[in-house]
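Minutes, project check-in
Item: structure for the 136-residue chain
Input as provided by the requester:
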Amino acid sequence: MYRLCVLFLFLVAAGFSQNQGRLTVNYENITPGAGSLYVALYNAEGAFLKQEFKGSVVKIENGKAQAIFDGLDYGEYAISSFVDENNNGLLDTNFFGMPKEPIAFSKNAKIRFGPPKFKDAKFLIDENEMEILITF
């Protein structure tokens, strides 16, 4: 019985020892006076640009902004962001579906005949504290 209890406690402790990190996303070159910055974090290729894993709305100050995500399991992630210039909570698009408001992606992935793929924007979190820069 004692061994069973020790084994149980070991398994429970092992489940809580998963490596997690904190991600700080710094943004630069945002048009001063713009609205709010919407940040979407994705943790799976199939969910990219469809269903965010975590999201944040941050204030833009002097053309810069910062979003922080805590408690992220080590692994691959990607970010999409847009500046909501008119503060309507939506990414405004034109008749063809092209964004009318500034957008940016992790690894500064480029838009070429459509949005970038997860593989172009993905980055690896494998340490306790990680910082990335996204430029508009």
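Outcome recorded: The two ends are 61 Å apart (CA to CA).
No further action items on this chain.
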